[in-house]
Structures are given as structure tokens and as C-alpha cells.
Design brief:
Blueprint: H1 2-14, E1 28-32, H2 44-58, E2 64-81, E3 88-106, E4 110-121, H3 130-147, E5 159-161, H4 166-177, H5 182-185, E6 215-217, E7 240-244, E8 247-248, H6 255-260, E9 269-270, E10 279-280, E11 285-287, H7 294-300, E12 304-306, E13 311-312, H8 322-328
Parallel strand pairs: 1-3, 5-12
Antiparallel strand pairs: 2-3, 3-4, 4-13, 6-7, 6-11, 7-8, 9-10
Length: 342
């Protein structure tokens, strides 16, 4: 114990800034998410039967050689009480999550892979209509294997249209969401999870995309997988406009890191377990939709390609950083749809 206290004191002396937290009006609320089909009433036998019936839909295409299906039902109950007596929050949020991986192989065309994800907060009704979605994914894999053609070799820079929701969502999540977590910006995770291209003085002034680009992180979307009304520090949640009209507008902040730059928390404090500290992290992050239809976007792309989440004997890599966002500047305003990440 003596060594631990001594070590803690030594580490404290090495800190470059004194720990502080922003002053907030904290919530005192009780809320829960309603269910039509209660997940706590479903037996393991029922869930196994449900997955087996979904697997039947995937087996209709004989070239799909690998089928992995994973189903999770959870209920998160929280009681948040802050030491200053300001917050008192009780919540009960059931969540349903389905993941599937389908891998097909054709001796002439190679392999095609599709990952399927569905989830949200609420009862088992969240998965209503999933069997039809599986049918559509199987049909899409069949089309990829039957019709896909490789892109001809070229050395020129080309426009790229990212198909929603998966690829647009990955780009927004990795290139905007994580880099705008303020603890990461200020170097807290430099040796663990990486640094950020952003700096505190980018706020409100640094242009990162077209003026038509708005990127939002919103924990209050009903029935979304990342839903919550109050964060882990008792601050009431709201939509956070990370990028507004192409300019960095807001960081993801908890009370500690907001205080370092003289701002208020925007309720981004998240803790993975009861005994873990709340740190700034995303909820539901998406690229706000514009008013172009998919066919209009493709028609206006004179020389380029349209990516698809169906991977045919290859991989897609998106690296977060200034180089990537600079490359996307001409394309971001052409994206459509939204992606929700929990």
C-alpha cells in the first residue's frame, strides 16, 4: 500500500496540468426504454431457433460456404450519483444486437464477403424484418459474383462514391469521430490508442471538408444502439455537431477535458464498466444526408468509381488523418444516407 501511494504521488507531480472538471447543471432523472417483446422473456432455445431459421435464408446460395451468426440480448441498468450530490440518474436500457458474416466462393471469380449488423435499444422487435434483409444480402453477394468486373489499371486521381451505410459510416467513425475525442487530441492516449490530427485551436476555424458536409454524433436517437439521455457524469445528452458546413465545430468532451479549454461538457463521458473512468467517446455518429438521390450522385461522377461493402477478393483500407480528409474534400458533399454506430 505504501508503495502504491508513493507511486501515485510521484505520477501526480509529473502531470503538466492540475485536474479540474467543468461546472454543469447535472440531471436528476429516471428513464427506461420500452419493449414490445421483452428480451428477458426469451429463452436460449428460442434464440437458437431464431438463428437457425436465419441460416436457412443464407443457405439458398450454394456458393456461400461460410456462415457465422451471432446474437446478443442485454439489459443495462445504471445508477449514477456524483460525489458533489448534483446528479442522480437511474436508467434501464435493453439492447439487441445481431452480427452475421457470409463468405461465398466461386472458382472463376474468387470470394465475396458480406458482414451483416443490426442492433438497437428496445425489445426483440428491433430485429423485425431481418430475414428479408438477409435475403437481400444473399442476392447482392450473388450479383457480385455473377457481374463484378475489376477496375481497369489507371494512374489518375479519380472520384469515389462511398456506398452507404457501411463505408460512409466507417469513414466518419474513424476519420472524424475518434480524432475529435478531446482526450485524444490533448495526448492522453498517445502511447495506447494513437494521437489525433486535430488540435484544440482547430475548433470553429479548421476546414476539413466541403461546405455541404455536416457530421453529427447524437446519443438521443430513439431505439439506436448508442442511445442514452444522460452520460456517465450526469450531464444531459444532446446532438453534437462535430463538423458543421465543413468546419470542425465541436469536440467530444467530458467534464474534465472541457474544463481545460474553458468549455462545458457535451455529455460524451462514456464508461465501459462501472469501475472504469468515464472518458470522451462516440455514441451514434453519422454524416448528415443531403438532398441528392443516389442516381444523381453517380450521374454527376464523370470519372470515378462507386465502392461497395461487398468485398470481392480484396480489402478496403481507410486511414484516419489529414491526408485522407483532404482527399475526401471533393466527395463528402456527394454522400447520402446515415450510419449509426454504437
Amino acid at each position: 500500500m505504501g508503495r502504491a501511494v508513493s507511486l501515485a504521488r510521484s505520477v501526480a507531480r509529473l502531470r503538466r496540468r492540475k485536474v479540474s472538471i467543468s461546472r454543469e447543471r447535472l440531471a436528476r432523472i429516471t428513464y427506461d426504454v420500452s419493449q414490445r417483446v421483452r428480451v428477458e422473456d426469451l429463452s436460449n432455445e428460442y434464440l437458437i431457433k431464431y438463428l437457425s431459421e436465419l441460416d436457412v435464408h443464407a443457405r439458398v446460395e450454394p456458393r456461400i460456404r461460410v456462415r457465422n451468426l451471432f446474437l446478443s440480448t442485454t439489459i443495462t441498468e445504471k445508477l449514477i450519483i456524483t460525489s458533489d450530490g448534483g446528479a442522480h440518474v437511474r436508467s434501464r436500457v435493453p439492447r439487441v444486437y445481431l452480427f452475421g458474416s457470409l463468405i461465398a466462393y466461386d472458382p472463376q471469380k474468387g470470394s465475396a464477403q458480406r458482414n451483416i449488423e443490426f442492433g438497437g435499444s428496445g425489445g426483440f422487435e428491433i430485429l423485425s424484418g431481418v430475414d428479408g434483409e438477409v435475403d437481400r444480402e444473399v442476392s447482392a453477394i450473388r450479383d457480385v459474383l455473377d457481374k463484378a468486373r475489376p477496375l481497369p489499371p489507371h494512374d489518375e486521381v479519380m472520384d469515389v462514391v462511398l456506398s452507404p451505410p457501411e463505408l460512409a459510416g466507417i469513414m466518419v467513425h474513424e476519420s472524424i469521430g475518434h480524432p475529435l475525442e478531446l482526450d485524444r487530441i490533448m495526448g492522453r492516449e498517445g502511447a495506447e490508442a494513437g494521437e489525433s490530427y486535430a488540435r484544440p485551436d482547430y475548433l470553429g476555424s479548421y476546414r476539413i471538408g466541403s461546405g455541404l458536409v455536416t457530421i453529427i454524433d447524437d446519443p438521443t436517437i430513439p431505439n439506436s444502439y448508442g442511445f442514452y439521455l444522460v452520460d456517465e457524469e450526469g450531464v444531459t445528452a444532446r446532438p453534437r455537431f462535430l463538423v458543421r458546413n465543413g468546419v470542425i465545430n465541436e469536440f467530444l468532451m467530458n467534464r474534465e477535458y472541457a474544463s481545460y479549454i474553458g468549455l462545458s461538457s457535451n455529455a460524451a463521458a462514456r464508461a465501459s464498466e462501472f469501475d472504469k473512468e468515464p472518458i470522451p467517446r462516440m455514441a451514434n455518429t453519422y454524416l448528415a444526408p443531403g438532398n441528392w438521390k443516389p442516381e444523381e450522385i453517380i450521374r454527376e461522377t464523370r470519372r470515378g468509381g462507386c465502392t461497395s461493402p461487398h468485398i470481392l477478393s480484396g480489402t478496403l483500407t481507410i486511414n484516419a488523418g489529414l491526408g485522407v480528409m483532404g482527399g475526401f474534400r471533393g466527395l463528402l458533399h456527394r454522400e447520402w444516407g446515415t450510419e449509426v454506430h454504437g
